[in-house]
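Session log. Operator J.P. requested a structure for one protein chain; no other inputs attached. Running the standard single-chain path with token output.
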Amino acid sequence: MIIYASDLNFLMEKVVSTLVYEISPDDFDKYREFFNRVDFPQTWIGSAFEYKSVKLFVDTESNPNTFLLLYPYHAFIVGDPDNSVVHEMLDMIPEETQMHLNAEKWLPKLKEHQFPGTLLNKRRFKLSHQYLNLEDIARLKKPLPNGYSIERVDRETALRLPPILNVHISPFFGDIDSYLEKGIGFCVKHGDAPISMAGSCIPYTKKLEIQIATIDSPDYRRKGFGTHTAIALLEYCLTNDIEPHWDATNEPSSIMAEKLGYSNPEPYYVYKWVENFVPDP
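Structure written below.
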């Protein structure tokens, strides 16, 4: 299920709680400390509290013990899993939303909860950007084939992006103008057509979460175009004192990150529920 929303209105029909309190964006900063966890990608947390374009819920307005931060497709849960309102909070989480949490503490509660579908886990990889440097990245550069070019995404290019390359803009930025203000992207073009892109998948602060995609075509896949865009983005980040974070969604993504200079891949799991799950044969 793909939900497109510029301001998280997709949650409004889902959130009908009478026991859970929604926090006003004006008061977000009071709750920042509860999400300063090493097991959470801080690119997402930092963006949430910088731009306040998410939904934040707590169990009580005074001395809260349980917290739910909702992005499109991602939920961050902290606090007491035995809180009396936890099941109501979990009911707020839409299908296919990846739940980030302390598994040792929270997994029994997830398994106990009656989601309207099957609870699944997904392995991701956290990688370190500690040893990235411009000299090593420069040595990875190769010339593009004739007819191809690489450039930073501007408005004209953004309007030409095919769905696989712009899928993050509507949910996380709202529109192209907001993306150009709060995001960074570099793309490889075949003529005037963008065919591969590396950029910030959410509004960035001094920490940027990288997303890379290439058109699913034998003409473009496995040709190194994603690496070209990643190198351009990494050079921009390191030149401008931006931390380029890479939270890999799968093992091939983790391997690609290591080739670019990332290190210490750590596997971890997120969880989601799927209503009509059909296991692979």
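Operator note: Residues 130-245 form a domain with the Aminopeptidase fold (CATH 3.40.630.30).
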